[in-house]
UniProtKB/TrEMBL annotation, chain A:
One of its GO terms (molecular function) is nickel cation binding. Pfam families: UreD (PF01774). GO terms for cellular component: cytoplasm. The keyword Lipid metabolism does not apply. The lineage of its organism: Bacteria, Pseudomonadati, Pseudomonadota, Alphaproteobacteria, Rhodobacterales. It is found in: Cytoplasm. InterPro entries: UreD. This is Urease accessory protein UreD.
Length: 284, 226
């Protein structure tokens, strides 16, 4: 808890509750994917989009369905509750990107902000989730909960980046969980906590004095007989095979730019279609 | 309460002198020192707290869960428990070490105190899972086992500190004394989680420990295996 903060006033009932839905399916030609459901809600604005910036797996592919997520307002703020449900239908390819980084802030009335993502990737589908960083602002209290169920013959790559405060700022409390099950069995389950109430997060076993932490998870049934070997390619980063046809790239860095560079290097090591190539002029 | 009479057995299991290979490991401390991230006593304290809150809690919760399931005779739950633990250890090196220690512990316990449940474990079960099964065979409670694991996590690193850092052993044990109530709280948390489904067991990550473990495996000079 943040002991120096004043007693919280009674919260006003102006908290945002948002429930957005996104789904893709294979079109009637059996080749092109299309968005079959797109429901924005309040601050969660989903829009069909064109290729933007660097993309792994789907570089220049015109048969993929692309959607971008934009925050219609600042936040989430303390007390807000956002949820996004995503269904990547059998055989379809969905690319989801963010328009900008997400800044999580404390609310006027205090309270915890929450964002949950419930994602299902069906048989033969490909899901590329390439969001921008989440920035945990000073005194925020945010919980980020991501659950993904992926079918055994589906492919996926996702990136997650958390920044510990805006420039020169001590972050508030941030807790995230990413749980991936494959065919119902656990594949990857990691919770991350930092901020004033996360004891030991600043220790050398967890984050030390880092200002940014991130990972990339790639799942590919082609790795059923063994995922690529471990490669600790930097003092603050390593690519490791998971106990299944998947790899994790974990990186801890001083700031968001250094983190992004480490993650890009990890993808370069993975090679082949996984390298994030630029589709447009965007320099990200 | 069940297991209340098993205090001596608890000491047996949590003693670092049990010939099960734990002495060869620094609990991630040597890799952190090699990486230059632990250089003084305040670094060491933050390291130990962070480790107990993450890898320590996971090991404690999984050993408590294995103990609980073994006590109930629900060994069919063990493979799911193993998969859940795999999913919580992104470092392939740390998974390998956990299974290597599990294999050694099972060998030791099968000789010290045979029990048919050991045969139900796979070829190389995770160490916390074997610990939990061993605890159940000695009629210990899940909370006892969680506390023993948390104690062992600290004790391994504290013993290693004297070898990899220039420290006063009194200072190291002062840290452990300050952490005593934390270990009690974490043991309670682990034991509560052990009552629930395996999917809901704690999953706190330790990114720097994962990265350092992969570097350590490739280090030319090292005193400890991890």
């Amino acid at each position: 808890m943040f002991v120096s903060s004043p007693p919280e006033p009674a919260p006003h009932a102006n908290h945002m509750v948002a429930r957005a839905v996104l789904a893709s399916e294979l079109g009637p030609d059996g080749r092109r994917s299309r968005v079959s459901r797109l429901r924005s809600d309040g601050p969660l604005v989903l829009r069909p989009s064109h290729p933007k910036g660097a993309e792994p797996l789907t570089h220049r592919r015109t048969d993929a369905a692309r959607v971008s997520l934009a925050a219609g307002t600042a936040g989430p703020l303390g007390g807000d509750d956002y949820a996004l449900s995503i269904h990547v239908g059998a055989g379809s390819t969905l690319v989801l990107q963010d328009v900008a980084a997400m800044l999580v802030l404390p609310g006027a009335g205090g309270g915890r902000s929450r964002m949950s993502l419930d994602i299902r990737v069906d048989d033969g589908a490909t899901f590329v989730w390439w969001p921008e960083p989440i920035i945990a602002a000073h005194r925020c209290d945010h919980t980020h909960d991501i659950r993904i169920e992926i079918a055994p013959d589906a492919r996926m790559i996702l990136r997650e980046e958390a920044i510990l405060g805006r420039h020169g700022e001590v972050p508030g409390n941030f807790a995230s969980r990413l749980r991936i099950t494959r065919g119902g069995a656990a594949l990857y389950d990691q919770r991350l906590r930092f901020g004033p109430s996360a004891a030991g997060a600043d220790g050398a076993a967890v984050l030390g004095d880092a200002g940014a932490v991130g990972s990339i998870i790639a799942v590919d049934p082609a790795w059923e007989r063994g995922a690529p070997p471990a490669d600790p390619y930097d003092r603050g980063a390593a690519l490791t095979p998971l106990a299944g046809p998947a790899i994790a790239i974990g990186a801890v860095a001083a700031d968001s730019l250094a983190l992004r560079r480490l993650l890009v290097r990890g993808l370069d090591i993975l090679g082949g279609p996984w390298i994030a190539r630029h589709n447009g002029k965007d320099g990200s | 309460m069940d297991g209340a009479g098993g205090s001596a057995a608890l000491l047996l299991l949590s003693d670092g002198r049990l010939p099960a290979g734990g002495y060869a490991h620094s609990g991630g401390l040597e890799p952190a020192v090699t990486a230059g991230r632990v250089t003084d006593m305040s670094d060491l304290e933050r390291f130990l707290v962070g480790r107990e809150e993450t890898a320590g809690l996971i090991a404690a919760a999984f050993s408590a869960a294995a103990c609980e399931r073994s006590r109930r005779g629900e060994l069919f739950e063990i493979p799911a428990l193993e998969a859940e633990l795999d999913a919580r250890i992104p470092s392939s090196e740390l998974r390998r070490i956990s299974r290597e220690l599990g294999r050694q512990l099972r060998r030791a316990m099968s000789a010290v105190h045979p029990h048919p449940h050991y045969d139900a474990l796979g070829a190389a079960p995770h160490q916390p899972v074997v610990m939990g099964v061993a605890a159940a065979s000695l009629d210990l409670s899940p909370r006892d086992m969680a506390l023993a694991i948390l104690h062992e996590t600290n004790a391994d690193a504290a013993a290693a500190a004297a070898k990899v850092l220039r420290v006063d052993p009194f200072d190291v044990h002062a840290i452990l004394a300050r952490m005593a109530t934390r270990l009690d709280r974490l043991a309670g948390e682990a034991a509560r989680a052990a009552q629930g489904p395996s999917a809901d067991l704690p999953a706190p990550g330790s990114p720097l420990a994962d990265i350092a473990a992969e570097h350590h495996r490739r280090a030319d000079v090292r005193l400890f295996a991890s």
